[in-house]
Design goal:
Layout (H helix, E strand, L loop, with lengths): L1 H12 L10 H14 L3 H31 L1 H16 L2 H12 L3 H24 L4 H9 L4 H39 L4 H10 L3 H32 L2 H4 L7
Helix pairs in contact: 2-10, 3-4, 3-6, 3-8, 3-9, 5-6, 5-8, 6-8, 8-9, 8-10, 9-10
Length: 247
């Protein structure tokens, strides 16, 4: 609050142009007008849909591949170099190609977002599966558990906090991926709205959209945090006991 008050005072005291730095009151007014008039809602809905779709797609693929690689050291050694190589390529560089191949609109934005989300979930899932200690694995072998039962009742439960931590990181990166993609190949969405505001030199609108992006990012993060608490409450090593004899 002190920063905002100082910002408001400085803009009026030094008579700065709104083109350079608009006053917080003007930004708040632009944000209010855009929300009340419905101008922001289609763009906010588009970006949210892209982020959620990309998060489900990229996070799901990352989780599945992480589990598969965690079950096979051979395939982990074979495929991980290719996975790492794919992550070195900047996603911003892929955006024009994806737009060229898939066209403008929803699909290329989802693909870019999924590519950004994929690796954090994969890496954390793989790390979580590798945290299972040998004593617990030996106990499950003594109890006659199959490989599937060991995975489901032991490894995934113990690795679940790691996977959910990767999902939290992926949720934040998903928004970055969607916005960056919209900068290049979209005519709707918060990223496209920033480009439009830049083209019309409407700095006040740019600040208002940045506030929306920040709010959306915080909302996504806290949603994944709430999801983590719920899942760990009902599906964790302590909820049912990984040493159960009915494994």
């Amino acid at each position: 609050m002190i920063v905002l008050l100082f910002w408001e005072w400085a803009v009026h005291h030094f008579n700065w142009s709104a083109l350079i730095l608009p006053a917080p009151s003007r930004v708040a007014q632009a944000l209010y007008n855009g929300l009340m008039s419905g101008y922001f809602w289609p763009h906010l809905r588009q970006t949210t849909l892209e982020v959620v779709s990309g998060l489900f797609l990229g996070g799901g693929l990352g989780f599945v591949l992480g589990v598969l690689l965690g079950q096979s050291r051979f395939w982990q050694a074979v495929l991980m170099p290719y996975v790492l190589t794919s992550q070195v390529v900047p996603k911003l560089a892929l955006a024009p190609l994806l737009t060229l191949w898939l066209g403008f609109g929803f699909l290329p934005m989802v693909v870019i977002t999924a590519l950004v989300c994929f690796f954090p979930v994969l890496e954390n899932t793989l790390t979580g599966l590798q945290q299972t200690d040998s004593a617990r694995l030996e106990l499950f072998r003594m109890l006659g558990a199959t490989r599937w039962q060991t995975l489901w009742r032991l490894k995934l439960r113990l690795g679940l906090p790691y996977t959910l931590s990767g999902l939290r990181v992926a949720a934040v990166l998903a928004l970055v991926g969607a916005i960056v993609g919209e900068f290049i190949g979209a005519n709707q969405g918060l990223g496209a709205l920033i480009i439009a505001a830049q083209g019309s030199m409407d700095t006040t609108l740019m600040f208002a959209v940045l506030i929306l992006i920040t709010g959306l990012g915080l909302g996504l993060y806290y949603c994944t945090l709430a999801l983590q608490r719920i899942v760990l409450r009902f599906y964790s090593p302590h909820s049912t006991g990984v040493y159960s004899h009915d494994c």
